[in-house]
Design a protein that fits this description.
single chain, 212 residues, alpha+beta, three-stranded antiparallel sheet, 7 helices, 8 strands
Length: 212
């Protein structure tokens, strides 16, 4: 039987450059295991800005894994994930998104965005103006061109630059997952360095990821 983890806590990982944050839960026997989170946006943030530009703080400890799940569900709710600086993509508690929670999440997000403006008209006007300004900036730099029938399209020069920049990306050491391996234990998934795999297997972890 796999050994239970000693510590269960809610943590908050913050990007020191952008101010964006991710709230999650973690169970471990080692409080210095270097865990920063596994959210999709968080992984992208760490990959782009580096671990050194992120800080992790423990918000609170819980007694059991079940209490931890329940507490995360309370904190990482629909209102929280709708915040502009929040990098969480789903509600907490390992429950995931059902069709209903996706629908409710969209409703809550739209409601919060609209509350930032006085009327629906003002909201649409702000969005339209922002898009127009972005297009104008790109057009001035020669990155896009505008056609009344086709709308905004990338110039051939821009397409070539993008194509060149993507060549070889995602291969070998340039791949974000290079040198890492997913492992699972007691329904908990974790990505580690392949160099550390043997030590984790000795302690009851198994290769692969639990997708339930």
């Amino acid at each position: 039987m796999a050994r239970k983890q000693r510590y269960h806590y809610i943590y908050k990982t913050t990007n020191l450059l952008s101010g964006k944050y991710y709230i999650g839960m973690h169970s471990t026997n080692n409080l210095d295991d270097g865990y920063m989170g596994s959210g999709k946006r968080l992984r992208y943030s760490i990959n782009k800005y580096g671990k050194g530009n992120h800080t992790v703080e423990i918000l609170e400890f819980l007694n059991t894994r079940e209490e931890l799940k329940s507490r995360e569900a309370e904190i990482v709710n629909l209102n929280e994930i709708a915040k502009e600086d929040c990098m969480n993509l789903k509600v907490g508690g390992e429950g995931g998104f059902s069709i209903e929670t996706q629908r409710l999440g969209g409703v809550v997000t739209a409601k919060i965005l609209k509350e930032r403006f006085d009327t629906d008209e003002e909201f649409r006007e702000k969005c339209t103006k922002a898009r127009s300004n972005n297009i104008a900036k790109l057009r001035d730099k020669g990155l896009v061109q505008y056609d009344n029938r086709k709308g905004t399209t990338q110039t051939e020069e821009t397409k070539n630059k993008i194509s060149i920049s993507k060549k070889g990306r995602g291969l070998g050491k340039t791949n974000f997952h290079y040198g890492s391996r997913w492992i699972t234990k007691d329904g908990y998934n974790k990505k580690i360095s392949k160099d550390d795999l043997e030590s984790y297997l000795i302690n009851g972890w198994v290769k692969g990821r639990n997708m339930k």
